[in-house]
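User: Please run a holo structure prediction.
Assistant: Happy to. Please share the sequence and the ligand.
User: Here you go; the ligand is D-mannonic acid.
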Amino acid sequence: MKLSFRWYGKDDPVKLDYIRQIPTMRSIVTAVYDVPVGEVWPRESIAELKKMVEDKGLVFDVIESVPVHEDIKLGRPTRDKYIESYKENIRRLAEAGIKCICYNFMPVFDWTRTQLDHVLPDGSTDLVYYKDQVEKMDPLTGELSLPGWDASYKKEDLKDLFDAYGKLTEEDMWDNLKYFLENIIPVAEECDVKMAIHPDDPPWNIFGLPRIITCEKNLDRFLKLVDNPYNGLTLCTGSLGCSKLNDMVHIVDKYSAMGRIHFMHLRNVKILDDGGFEESAHYSGCGSLDMVAILRVLYKNGFDGYLRPDHGRMIWGETGRPGYGLYDRALGASYITGIWETLCKLDK
Ligand code: CS2
Ligand code: MN
């Protein structure tokens, strides 16, 4: 397991100087953030990121994310141009030493929550998804904007996108994903870069937009679209695991045994009775997922891919990007390291 940490580049309030102080921290997960979706990343920007990371003694070998242009997801005629840029990004990143690229295929919005600063009984804050509040949200009229989302959409563009997705069935999404994979996976293989799709978060349709990377059945279907080890998964326990229908230990066991998990996101969530959820500290007792059981199956299957603590709470007065503060993710990383060390030593 290669422990890694997400970093949002030089404007991230969380400094590489701090990240490197987390015991056993190895890789930095980052991206070029100032290039519009669908365009090629300048070699200089990639080189600059690599240098910043390596100057601190950390490894630059995972990218999260190279975003997929909506025209690809929608199967519009212009998709070929964006697919060509995507391939070029894979090549350029491979030249810079990247071994794994995380991306997602969610229409329009990335992860969705109803509140980013929900206060827990201990005074820390977390991200929550309350069903009754989601029903009242209208992304077309509200001033709603979440940090996982591309803030660049104008209201009119959003309306067009919603109209376009309104005509698209889930089967169309599958066709469009297959077309994308058939084009990019051969390039990824040639460049020795593992592609790792991130599950939809939450793993169900939101605002009437179709979502397909949601459950075991669909993960099976996804892996068969292009049955090649370079076509793999970012297994995010908090994304799939916020649905009671997903048995996370079984899912992690199955796909790590198949060698198709290239990147693990470890995060805990507390599933609520009505199907909503609250993100929690990583410790198993704080949420609905059993972190030891998840890490145990990874260990048993000899998992040697990347693994990072995912969203943390805001604790100790830290302010910054919700889900991506330093302190709680560092606690998560240490907790994971402790479990992993125990698994290794018990095995001896
Ligand atoms: C999120 C996402 O759960 C997560 O990791 O923070 O923003 C994720 O990075 C993207 O969906 C990956 O493409
Ligand atoms: Mn994740």
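The longest strand covers residues 59-64.
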